[in-house]
Specification:
The chain has about 210 residues and is of the alpha/beta class. It is built from nine helices and seven strands. This is FMN reductase.
Length: about 210
Protein backbone atom coordinates (compact mmCIF):
# COMPACT_ATOMS: atom_id res chain seq x y z
CA UNK A 1 0.00 0.00 0.00
CA UNK A 2 1.39 3.37 -0.96
CA UNK A 3 1.48 6.28 1.48
CA UNK A 4 -0.92 8.24 -0.74
CA UNK A 5 -3.38 5.35 -0.73
CA UNK A 6 -3.16 5.05 3.05
CA UNK A 7 -4.03 8.71 3.48
CA UNK A 8 -6.86 8.98 0.94
CA UNK A 9 -8.57 5.60 1.33
CA UNK A 10 -11.57 5.74 3.64
CA UNK A 11 -11.34 3.42 6.61
CA UNK A 12 -14.49 1.63 7.69
CA UNK A 13 -14.51 -0.34 10.93
CA UNK A 14 -17.29 -2.89 11.40
CA UNK A 15 -17.94 -3.87 15.01
CA UNK A 16 -19.58 -7.21 15.74
CA UNK A 17 -20.81 -7.99 19.25
CA UNK A 18 -21.68 -11.57 18.38
CA UNK A 19 -20.67 -14.09 21.02
CA UNK A 20 -20.50 -17.26 18.96
CA UNK A 21 -18.43 -18.52 16.06
CA UNK A 22 -19.67 -18.58 13.40
CA UNK A 23 -21.88 -15.59 14.16
CA UNK A 24 -24.76 -14.14 12.16
CA UNK A 25 -23.93 -10.83 13.82
CA UNK A 26 -20.43 -10.84 12.35
CA UNK A 27 -21.88 -11.92 9.00
CA UNK A 28 -24.24 -8.93 8.97
CA UNK A 29 -21.50 -6.52 10.08
CA UNK A 30 -19.21 -7.77 7.33
CA UNK A 31 -21.88 -7.57 4.63
CA UNK A 32 -22.89 -4.05 5.65
CA UNK A 33 -19.26 -2.95 5.57
CA UNK A 34 -18.69 -4.58 2.20
CA UNK A 35 -21.81 -2.88 0.81
CA UNK A 36 -20.47 0.51 1.91
CA UNK A 37 -17.05 -0.21 0.41
CA UNK A 38 -18.66 -1.29 -2.88
CA UNK A 39 -20.86 1.81 -2.97
CA UNK A 40 -17.83 4.03 -2.34
CA UNK A 41 -16.02 2.25 -5.14
CA UNK A 42 -18.92 3.06 -7.48
CA UNK A 43 -18.26 6.72 -6.63
CA UNK A 44 -14.55 6.39 -7.35
CA UNK A 45 -13.59 6.46 -3.67
CA UNK A 46 -11.14 3.89 -2.30
CA UNK A 47 -12.15 2.31 0.99
CA UNK A 48 -10.87 -0.40 3.29
CA UNK A 49 -12.92 -2.52 5.68
CA UNK A 50 -11.78 -4.02 8.96
CA UNK A 51 -14.13 -6.25 10.94
CA UNK A 52 -13.58 -6.30 14.71
CA UNK A 53 -15.17 -8.99 16.88
CA UNK A 54 -15.71 -7.56 20.36
CA UNK A 55 -15.70 -11.06 21.86
CA UNK A 56 -11.92 -11.05 21.29
CA UNK A 57 -11.51 -8.09 23.67
CA UNK A 58 -14.27 -9.00 26.13
CA UNK A 59 -11.93 -9.50 29.09
CA UNK A 60 -9.94 -6.30 28.41
CA UNK A 61 -13.26 -4.41 28.19
CA UNK A 62 -14.15 -5.57 31.71
CA UNK A 63 -10.65 -4.68 32.94
CA UNK A 64 -10.99 -1.19 31.43
CA UNK A 65 -14.34 -0.69 33.15
CA UNK A 66 -12.75 -1.59 36.49
CA UNK A 67 -9.51 0.35 36.10
CA UNK A 68 -10.56 3.21 33.83
CA UNK A 69 -7.72 2.46 31.39
CA UNK A 70 -7.70 0.54 28.11
CA UNK A 71 -4.49 -1.26 27.23
CA UNK A 72 -3.10 -3.63 24.62
CA UNK A 73 -5.47 -4.98 21.99
CA UNK A 74 -8.45 -3.05 23.36
CA UNK A 75 -6.54 0.24 23.10
CA UNK A 76 -5.78 -0.60 19.47
CA UNK A 77 -9.45 -1.30 18.75
CA UNK A 78 -10.54 1.96 20.39
CA UNK A 79 -7.97 3.86 18.32
CA UNK A 80 -9.25 2.27 15.11
CA UNK A 81 -12.84 3.15 15.96
CA UNK A 82 -11.97 6.70 16.98
CA UNK A 83 -10.00 7.36 13.78
CA UNK A 84 -12.35 5.57 11.38
CA UNK A 85 -14.07 7.43 8.57
CA UNK A 86 -17.17 5.37 9.31
CA UNK A 87 -18.30 2.71 11.77
CA UNK A 88 -20.68 -0.18 11.25
CA UNK A 89 -22.06 -1.29 14.63
CA UNK A 90 -23.96 -4.58 14.88
CA UNK A 91 -25.20 -6.35 17.98
CA UNK A 92 -27.37 -9.35 18.74
CA UNK A 93 -30.59 -8.47 20.55
CA UNK A 94 -30.73 -9.79 24.11
CA UNK A 95 -33.72 -9.08 26.38
CA UNK A 96 -35.13 -6.55 23.91
CA UNK A 97 -31.95 -4.49 23.76
CA UNK A 98 -28.28 -4.52 22.73
CA UNK A 99 -25.90 -7.12 24.12
CA UNK A 100 -24.09 -6.36 27.37
CA UNK A 101 -20.72 -6.72 25.65
CA UNK A 102 -21.75 -4.15 23.04
CA UNK A 103 -22.82 -1.62 25.68
CA UNK A 104 -19.73 -2.27 27.80
CA UNK A 105 -17.48 -1.50 24.83
CA UNK A 106 -19.36 1.72 24.17
CA UNK A 107 -18.98 2.61 27.85
CA UNK A 108 -15.18 2.46 27.68
CA UNK A 109 -15.03 4.76 24.64
CA UNK A 110 -14.29 8.41 25.18
CA UNK A 111 -17.52 10.44 25.17
CA UNK A 112 -16.33 12.30 22.05
CA UNK A 113 -14.92 9.26 20.22
CA UNK A 114 -17.82 8.98 17.76
CA UNK A 115 -18.92 12.62 17.62
CA UNK A 116 -19.73 13.38 13.99
CA UNK A 117 -18.66 9.94 12.79
CA UNK A 118 -20.93 8.31 10.18
CA UNK A 119 -22.39 5.19 11.78
CA UNK A 120 -24.50 2.42 10.27
CA UNK A 121 -26.51 0.35 12.75
CA UNK A 122 -27.44 -3.30 12.53
CA UNK A 123 -28.85 -5.99 14.78
CA UNK A 124 -29.64 -9.69 14.69
CA UNK A 125 -32.22 -11.77 16.50
CA UNK A 126 -34.41 -14.83 16.35
CA UNK A 127 -37.53 -13.14 15.00
CA UNK A 128 -38.49 -9.84 13.40
CA UNK A 129 -40.22 -8.82 16.65
CA UNK A 130 -36.79 -7.87 18.00
CA UNK A 131 -36.18 -5.34 15.22
CA UNK A 132 -37.68 -2.55 17.34
CA UNK A 133 -34.49 -2.60 19.40
CA UNK A 134 -32.81 -0.69 16.59
CA UNK A 135 -34.99 2.35 17.20
CA UNK A 136 -35.70 2.20 20.92
CA UNK A 137 -32.22 1.16 22.10
CA UNK A 138 -29.46 1.51 19.51
CA UNK A 139 -30.45 4.76 17.81
CA UNK A 140 -30.85 6.75 21.07
CA UNK A 141 -27.49 5.42 22.29
CA UNK A 142 -25.62 6.72 19.24
CA UNK A 143 -27.61 9.94 19.22
CA UNK A 144 -26.30 10.51 22.75
CA UNK A 145 -22.76 9.93 21.43
CA UNK A 146 -23.46 12.56 18.72
CA UNK A 147 -22.69 10.14 15.90
CA UNK A 148 -24.02 10.81 12.41
CA UNK A 149 -26.34 7.81 12.22
CA UNK A 150 -27.52 6.57 8.83
CA UNK A 151 -31.26 6.71 8.28
CA UNK A 152 -31.51 3.05 7.29
CA UNK A 153 -30.66 0.47 9.93
CA UNK A 154 -30.70 -3.26 9.17
CA UNK A 155 -32.15 -6.05 11.28
CA UNK A 156 -31.62 -9.67 10.28
CA UNK A 157 -33.77 -12.40 11.77
CA UNK A 158 -32.96 -16.08 11.54
CA UNK A 159 -35.45 -16.53 8.70
CA UNK A 160 -33.73 -13.81 6.66
CA UNK A 161 -30.61 -15.93 6.35
CA UNK A 162 -32.55 -19.05 5.40
CA UNK A 163 -34.89 -17.46 2.85
CA UNK A 164 -32.35 -17.20 0.04
CA UNK A 165 -32.73 -13.45 -0.06
CA UNK A 166 -36.54 -13.45 -0.26
CA UNK A 167 -38.23 -11.88 2.73
CA UNK A 168 -41.80 -12.59 3.77
CA UNK A 169 -44.67 -10.23 4.45
CA UNK A 170 -43.93 -7.97 1.48
CA UNK A 171 -40.73 -6.57 3.03
CA UNK A 172 -37.59 -6.03 0.97
CA UNK A 173 -35.04 -8.83 0.88
CA UNK A 174 -32.20 -8.68 3.37
CA UNK A 175 -29.70 -8.17 0.56
CA UNK A 176 -31.62 -5.18 -0.73
CA UNK A 177 -31.75 -3.61 2.73
CA UNK A 178 -28.01 -4.14 3.15
CA UNK A 179 -27.28 -2.55 -0.22
CA UNK A 180 -29.49 0.45 0.51
CA UNK A 181 -27.93 1.02 3.92
CA UNK A 182 -24.43 0.69 2.48
CA UNK A 183 -25.19 3.29 -0.16
CA UNK A 184 -26.50 5.72 2.45
CA UNK A 185 -23.35 5.36 4.54
CA UNK A 186 -21.16 5.70 1.44
CA UNK A 187 -22.81 8.96 0.40
CA UNK A 188 -22.06 10.48 3.80
CA UNK A 189 -18.48 9.24 3.83
CA UNK A 190 -17.74 10.33 0.25
CA UNK A 191 -18.90 13.86 1.01
CA UNK A 192 -16.17 14.28 3.63
CA UNK A 193 -12.42 14.47 3.60
CA UNK A 194 -10.61 11.34 4.85
CA UNK A 195 -9.56 11.62 8.45
CA UNK A 196 -6.00 10.41 7.99
CA UNK A 197 -3.85 9.36 10.89
CA UNK A 198 -4.52 11.07 14.18
CA UNK A 199 -1.69 13.11 15.62
CA UNK A 200 0.16 11.50 18.50
CA UNK A 201 -0.01 13.95 21.45
CA UNK A 202 3.17 12.41 22.89
CA UNK A 203 5.20 12.42 19.67
CA UNK A 204 7.33 15.37 20.76
CA UNK A 205 8.00 14.05 24.26
CA UNK A 206 11.67 13.16 24.85
CA UNK A 207 12.55 9.51 25.38
CA UNK A 208 13.94 8.17 28.63
CA UNK A 209 17.24 7.45 26.86
CA UNK A 210 17.63 11.07 25.78
CA UNK A 211 16.78 12.33 29.25
CA UNK A 212 19.27 10.00 30.93
CA UNK A 213 21.92 10.79 28.33
CA UNK A 214 21.45 14.54 28.64
Amino acid sequence: MTKEHAVTARRIVALSAGLSRPSSTRMLAERLGQAAVAALGDQGVDAELEVVELRDVAHPVVDAMLTGFATGELADVIEKVTNADAVVAVTPVFTASYAGLFKSFVDVLDKDALAGTPVLLGATGGTARHSLALDHALRPLFAYLRADVATTAVFAATDDWAASGHATGGEAALGERITRAGRELARTVAAREPRGEADDPFASAPSFESLLGG
